[in-house]
Amino acid sequence: DVKVTQSSRYLVKRTGEKVFLECVQDMDHENMFWYRQDPGLGLRLIYFSYDVKMKEKGDIPEGYSVSREKKERFSLILESASTNQTSMYLCASSLRGTTDTQYFGPGTRLTVL
Amino acid sequence: EDQVTQSPEALRLQEGESSSLNCSYTVSGLRGLFWYRQDPGKGPEFLFTLYSAGEEKEKERLKATLTKKESFLHITAPKPEDSATYLCAVGSSNTGKLIFGQGTTLQVKP
């Protein structure tokens, strides 16, 4: 079975803090994704990566950056957290293309105060 | 423009009362239609991928079907543990991304 893990289930940070969200997949998948999920807005793609050190902007990249130094690990960075970044963050991975079946992690509920 | 619409937004069923969830889509080059189940506070769990019109897949009480414009998720004799939000997504060859619907929240009462 594919397993995608995220470093924290719940996280509380202060405005202006730098925040790191980590995601690890154990199935040698090529592609990894970061989404945020908000009520009424659904799932929105922040960034994705199709290879080590490669990244592409999604639909809402502003205020975020990412890092993929190893194939199995994809990090989302909030350089200076703001209250409007309070959300559920979901990491996913897929084996082949970016439109292949995506497998999701358990999510990180981030609250920025 | 690629778009996915799910209906209804919410559905309440009695245990054993079969029904269907709808996912209508418009996409430039379908690269798969995906169904996920999501429990509150958790990540989406993959259920099915369908690739071409006429294709059907089943898992326990769930059956997914696909036409050129929509997909249905049929739930036969549901149980309370089937209560969840069901998400539909399509893969777009135009954007190279998955486009998600807003989901249907299903509640099954005993």
Task: Explain briefly what this protein structure is.
The complex is a heterodimer of chains A (113) and B (110). With 113 residues, chain A is mainly β.
Main β-sheet of chain B, in a few words? Answer: 6 strands, mixed
Amount of beta strand of chain A: over 45%
Helix/strand order of chain B: EEEEEEEEEEE
- Low-pLDDT parts of chain B are none
State the end-to-end distance of chain B: 41 Å
Q: Largest chain interface and its two residue counts?
A: A-B, 21 and 23 residues
Structural category of chain A: mainly beta
Strand proportion of chain B: over 45%
Say how many strands of chain A there are: 11
| Helix/strand class of chain B | mainly beta
Calculate Rg of chain A over CA atoms. 13 Å
Radius of gyration of chain B: 13 Å
Helical residue percent band of chain B: under 10%
Ends distance of chain A: 37 Å
* Arithmetic mean pLDDT of chain A: 95
Give a short account of the largest sheet of chain A: 7 strands, mixed
Q: Number of helical runs of chain A?
A: 0
Instruction: Note the overall shape of chain A.
Output: globular
